[in-house]
Amino acid sequence: MAEPIGLASGLLTLAIFAFQSSIALYETIKGFQSHPKRVRDLIEELEALSGVLGPLSETIGASTDVDLSNLDLPLLRCGNACKEFEQELLKCLSRSGSNRTSFRDWAKLRYMGDDIDNFRRLLAGYKLTINIALTDANLRKSSITAENLETYRDLIKTTTDDLQAHLESIDEKLEAIFNQTMTESNPDVTELKLIKEERSSTQRCLQICDQLSEHINQIQLNTKRDASSPGPNDPDAIPEMVTDQGLQECRNSLAHTVARLERHMKDVMNQLVAKSKTAMTSEDEIANLARLREEWETARQSVDICSRADSYLKENVSKIDNYATGDAVQFMVSTNGKVLHGKNRGLGWRSRQVGGYMSDTAVIHLSRDMNGITIQKVGNDGPSSQDKTPPVPDEIEETGQSSEFGQRYGRGMSLNPKTTSDANMPSRGSAESGQK
Q: Which superkingdom does the taxonomy of this entry point to (predicted)?
């Protein structure tokens, strides 16, 4: 008998466990002859999940500098969910008295009280969470194209919404179980009620922290949009810098508060589950409660993975699209190590562009040098007169020299013709030579 897999196992072991469990479930379902639409959709989702878990196992096994430790619980739950669903499927098959050729009771199949469609969405949540964690880890080491960056942002938003909906569903199921166990015959009913109130209070506090964090984030974004990009030594930048630092300190303090509340919420949930188990007599009910408890924690951890990835994009990745016409100077630089995604596009007779990673001092000096260049235009839109070069004639009529002269000695220059009196007078140099 194989040893049970737990969180104490290494991340590679968990990834291989989830991968093998998904493959086993896929092969079991494919072994049935009857595949309605919802079953075909589940098969496709299992294929996609295996396509993510396989490369994940290879990445973890080959790399030592990629931190994916926050995937431990999602991987464990993914593997357990696949194994448990396979067991439920075989139980349903045995109860129906049919075989894999004639099985038709797919609609009766349930996992944690949900049907096949909800189980497929559960697997999709695991898959998307793993995808986001992998992309986030790779983005911290390299960069992706601007188009892929937008797709990644949309993926984080969609996955977060789906996970929040799933978490609400798990909360409702747990709430229903807790209400059933709070009967007058239960000696712990009073304590259960107090624990439930504590849980509700903690949830409200977490919601308040989430709203405040979002509000601070919006203030910071608006401040950055309204700023006129003053230099770091500009006195006008000091109020914005002080405000931004203060807001960031608030966010850091808020994050610490949320972490403490999350730990407290887990403790309260553990107490509720432990007290509720004492009032249960069925092994199936106890097992279902344990699964819901694990899934509740997994969903919260998956939401946290998405939140961290989204915060990294907002704080460490800048998207810039510069466009100018005519005489323009464009800067697309990072002075704080932020990842840059963008373009410098200039149309006109003269445009100067700067892009890359520089220090604040280098940007200041370069900006002064480029702005100090004065360009004189001919007319309104023409190039500078300094760029105009007088044409070289093919023939120099005064001397009769051909273009061969220009090729050998250069353009030369035309001299004013001398008068007759000037021609008859000796030069000063000639007179001095005669005296010697």
A: Eukaryota
- Candidates 342, 347, 14, 312; CA nearest to 152 is 312
Q: Which residues pair with 401 in a beta bridge?
A: 396
Q: What is the DSSP string of 4-66?
A: PP-TTS-HHHHHHHHHHHHHHHHHHHHTSS---HHHHHHHHHHHHHHHHHHHHHHHHHH-SS-
Q: Are residues 109 and 177 in the same domain?
A: yes
CA angle at 64 for the pair 63 and 68, rounded to the nearest 5°: 85
Q: Kindly list the distances between the CA atom of residue 92 and the CA atoms of 21, 128, 233, in Å, as whole numbers in the listed order.
A: 19, 29, 72
- Domain boundary, last residue among 239, 258, 278: 278
pTM score, two decimals? 0.69
Tens of pLDDT, residues 214-228:
787 777 666 655 544
Domain ranges, residue 3: 1-183
Same domain? For 334 and 394 the reply is no
Average pLDDT, the chain: 76
Two tokens, residue 107: 């609609």
Report how far residue 350's alpha carbon sits from residue 362's, in angstroms, rounded to the nearest whole number.
Answer: 23
